Amino acid sequence: MLRLIASLLFLSCAGAAHAIATDPAPGGAYKTDPSHSSLVWSLNHSGLSRYTARFTGVYARLDWKPEKPEQSALTVTIDPLSVRTDFPWAEMGDFDAEIGGGENFLDAQPMTFVSQSIRVTGPNTGVVEGLLTILGQTHPARLDVTFNGSMAEHPMMGVAKIGFSATGVIRRSDWGLDYGIPELGDEVTFSVETQMVPADFVFP
């Protein structure tokens, strides 16, 4: 009986693996799938913990060249008003609006990142260097990127998909965003998870 159950489990797993097997996604223009993308950031708070929040309005476009990834190009726009802090006391005020739109913070000014160079560092890793604009100031920034794979046809969405993870660190004071330092840490760590679809795909 145990042998039968084990065999059925093996066949089930093998069938599932076969179901998602697919050719890699072709090159071309891609954009973020907002339902499978996130940007989480954190900074030191009073030396006691890392305050953590996220942006939900992250829009990226990638000119993907799978045969020569270093020739790809990336542009990203982040809506500051899409910040989500999960502040627990709404009756005390709209903390998300303060962070995203307040003059001491992001002042409702969109943030952008434009790649300038892409360097392949391993079979599925690379470094993307570019220009990050915050509060109208533009300075270099770096992303350490992992290419998670791609599909020529996603089994649920029926379109090509590419997946990436990325991390980075900036000093917010370099962009004039120095409110609260040192009580609120200067160094901001961020991580990105994203799936991308062809740029002409129309979401429902």
Summarize the structure.
This protein is mainly beta.
Task: Kindly estimate the percentage of residues that lie in beta strands according to DSSP.
Answer: over 45%
**From the coordinates shown, what is the CATH architecture?**
Beta Barrel
**Largest sheet, described in full?**
8 strands, antiparallel, barrel
| Spatial extent as radius of gyration | 20 Å
Number of helices: 2
Q: Would you state the CATH class?
A: Mainly Beta
H/E topology pattern: HEEEEEEHEEEEE
Strands in their spatial order, largest beta sheet: 1-4-5-7-8-9-10-11
- The beta-strand count equals 11
Oligomer state equals single chain
CATH superfamily: Lipid/polyisoprenoid-binding, YceI-like
Q: Percent range for helical residues?
A: 10-25%
* Helix and strand composition category: mainly beta
CATH topology: Lipocalin
Could you explain the architecture of this structure?
The protein has about 200 residues and is mainly β. It has one domain (about 25-200): Lipid/polyisoprenoid-binding, YceI-like (Lipocalin), CATH 2.40.128.110. The chain contains two helices and eleven strands; from the N terminus they run αββββββαβββββ. The chain has an eight-stranded antiparallel barrel with strand order 1-4-5-7-8-9-10-11. Strand 7 (about 110-120) and strand 8 (about 125-135) form a beta hairpin. The radius of gyration is 20 Å and the shape is globular. The N and C termini lie far apart (about 45 Å).
Keywords:
mainly beta, 8-stranded antiparallel beta barrel, 204 residues, Lipocalin
Q: How are the SSEs ordered, and which strands pair?
A:
Layout: H1 2-20, E1 28-32, E2 38-45, E3 49-55, E4 58-64, E5 73-78, E6 83-84, H2 95-101, E7 111-120, E8 125-134, E9 137-151, E10 161-171, E11 184-198
Antiparallel strand pairs: 1-4, 1-11, 2-3, 2-11, 3-6, 4-5, 5-7, 7-8, 8-9, 9-10, 10-11
InterPro entries: Lipid/polyisoprenoid-bd_YceI, TTHA0802/YceI-like_sf
Keywords: Signal
Pfam families: YceI
